Amino acid sequence: MADFACVTGAFAPAKKVAKSELNKTISYTDGMRDPTSHMPYKARAVPVAIYLHLPFCRRLCPYCDFFKKVPRRGDLARICELILSELSATLARESSWADSLITSIYFGGGTPSLHSAEQLASLLSAITQNGEHGKYEVTLEANPGTLTLEGLKQLRDVGVNRLSLGAQSFSERKLHLLYRDHTADETLTTVKNARAAGFTNLSMDLIFGLPGETKDEWLADIEQLLACEPEHVSLYNLEYHEQTPFGRWHAQGVLEPLSQDFEAELYLLTHEKLEQAGYEHYEVSNFAKPGFRSVHNQVYWEGKPYLGFGPSAHSFDGVTRRFANVADLHEYERRVIANESCVDREWQNSEREQWEEWISVRLRRKEGILWDDCHLAWGGKHARALWAAATLLPEHLREIDAANFRLTTEGWFVENEILLKLYEAV
Ligand code: SF4
User: Fold this and answer.
1) Measured in angstroms, how far is the CA atom of residue 304 from the centroid of ligand 1?
2) Cβ of 321 below 6 Å from ligand 1
3) Does residue 111 have its Cβ closer than 6 Å to ligand 1?
4) CB contact set of 60 (below 8 Å; sequence gap of 6+)
5) 68 in Cβ contact with 15 (< 8 Å)
6) What's the gap in Å between 39 CA and the centre of ligand 1?
7) DSSP letter at 282?
C-alpha cells in the first residue's frame, strides 16, 4: 500500500489554513474502544479508503437520491480542479490523515466516466506517487455508452483497474421506466470493449423490484448478466426515496411497488442463480467470483476509516467521528476558493450508536459476527446479550454456532426488521 503522506508532496503547501474544529477529534484517544481491530491505535498506521465524488450525469434518473447535476460547459474540468484544491487543503489541515496508508480509491458519482482520463489521472496522481496506485484497487463508476474502446484503454493506462458498470437491466422496458440514458446493446458493447481494453475486474449493477416486473423478465436480466461474466455483481432492490420523482409518484399512486413477498422471491432466486454460476454472495447486495470482493466497499462494511472528497462526500475516522461535505455545488466551490472547510455536518456516534452500527454492518456480511471479535471489542456482557437476542430470532433467518452469528439469505432480505428486534433486546 502507498503512503498517503505523499499527497502533501504533490501540492504546494496550502496557504494559511486555519485550524478548524476538525483537528480536535481526529486522533484516537487512549482507552477509546476500537471496533475494527484489537491492535492498539498507536501501534499501527490507520489505512484509509479514498472516495471522490464526481457529481455530473448526462441525465437524472428519477429514482436516484445521490447528489448529482447535469453539467454545463466547463463543469467537468472545474470540479476536478476544485477537488484537487480540497484534497490539498484538507490534508494540510488533517495531518493525521496525511500519514495514513491507502486501501483503495473509488471514483463515484454521478457518472465519473464522463470525465477524461487526463482529469482522472490528475486526481489519482494528487493522491499517490506516480504509478503507486497500481498497487491497489482503483474503481471507476461508469455508465454504458459513455466510454469508447479508446477511452477505456486510456483509463487502464492512467491506473483505473476496476470498472463498476451501471447496467441496471437488459430489459428495454425497465431501462425506459428508470429513464436510463443507455440501451442494453450499449451495455453489451461497453462490456466487450472493457475486456478488449484489458479490464479483468468488472462489476455490474442490476436493479430488481420495478413496478410490473415479472419473474421471466428478471430471469432474462440474470441470464444476460451471467453471459457478460462480470467478476462482481451489485444487486439493488428499487427504493422509493421521498425526495425523488419516484418517491412522489409512489405517494401519488402512479407507481405501484411489487409485493414484499414477490420481491423476496426474486432476491432468493438471484442468490440461487448466481451461486450456481460460481459467485459468492458475500454481502447482502453483493456477489463476487473468488478473489474479487470489492476492497473499497468492504471498508464500509467493516467499519474502517474512509475519507471522501467532492460535494456531498462522507468521511469516517473508523471510531466515532463522521463528517459530510456540503451538498451544494455553488457553496462547495465558494468554500474551496475561500480555503474554508467543505465539511457541512460533523457528528460523533454515541457508544450505543457505535454498538448498533457494529452489529448492523457485520450482519450485512456473509461471515456475520465472530463471537471472539464481539468479546474483544465490546466485552462479555454485550456478547452474551447479543447471543441471547440472536437465539430468539426464527431459525430460518439466522445461523448461530460457537464461532459466528450470521443471517441466512432469507434473513438478509428482512435485515432491517431483524436489526430492530436485536436493538430492542441488547
Ligand atoms: S446515472 Fe447514476 S448517479 Fe446519475 S442520476 Fe442516474 S443513477 Fe443517479
Assistant:
1) 26
2) no
3) yes
4) 68, 70, 179
5) no
6) 40
7) E
CATH, domain 6-301, list 3.90.700.10, 3.10.129.10, 1.10.357.10, 3.80.30.20: 3.80.30.20
Whether 419 is in the pocket of ligand 1, judged by its Cβ within 6 Å, is no
Atom index in ligand 1 nearest the CA of residue 110 equals 3
CA of 57 to the centre of ligand 1 (A): 6
Place of cell 436480466: 221
For residue 183, the model assigns a pLDDT of 97
Measured between alpha carbons, how far is 162 from 139 in angstroms, rounded to an integer?
Answer: 5
Helix residue ranges per DSSP H, 111-163: 117-127, 149-158
308 pocket-lining for ligand 1 (C-beta < 6 Å): no
Beta carbon of 57 within 6 Å of any ligand 1 atom: yes
Of residues 59 and 130, more confidently modeled:
59
**pLDDT recorded at residue 133:** 60
CA of 61 to the centre of ligand 1 (A): 5
Task: Tell me phi and psi for residue 414, to 5 degrees.
Answer: -115, 35
Q: Do 361 and 303 contact (CB within 8 A), yes or no?
A: yes
Alpha-carbon distance of 60 to 244, in angstroms, equals 10
What is the distance in A from the centroid of ligand 1 to the CA of 267? 23
Predicted confidence (pLDDT) at residue 160 exceeds the cutoff of 50: yes
| For residue 21, pLDDT beyond 90 | no
- Residue 159, preceding peptide bond in cis (omega within 30° of 0): no
Tell how many helices (H) and how many strands (E) occur in the chain. 17, 15
Radius of gyration for the alpha carbons in the chain, expressed in angstroms and rounded:
22
- Tracing cell 502533501 back to the chain, one arrives at 8
Mean pLDDT to the nearest integer, 66-73: 96
* Per-residue pLDDT, 90: 85
- Report the chain's mean pLDDT, rounded to a whole number: 88
> Could you tell me the pLDDT band of residue 8, with boundaries at 50, 70 and 90?
very low
Q: Which of 54, 58, 69, 111 to mutate to test the pocket of ligand 1 (most atoms within 8 A of CB)?
A: 111
Report the alpha-carbon distance of residue 282 to residue 316 in Å, rounded.
Answer: 23
Q: Is the model's pLDDT at 27 over the cut of 80?
A: no
Residues of the chain with CATH 3.80.30.20: 6-301
**Is pLDDT above 70 for 84?**
yes
Atom of ligand 1 nearest to the CA of 59: 5
Ligand 1 centroid – CA 239 distance (Å): 14
Closest CA to 68 of 87, 82, 78, 54: 54
Q: What DSSP state is assigned to residue 69?
A: B
From the CA of 224, how far away is ligand 1's center (Å)?
22
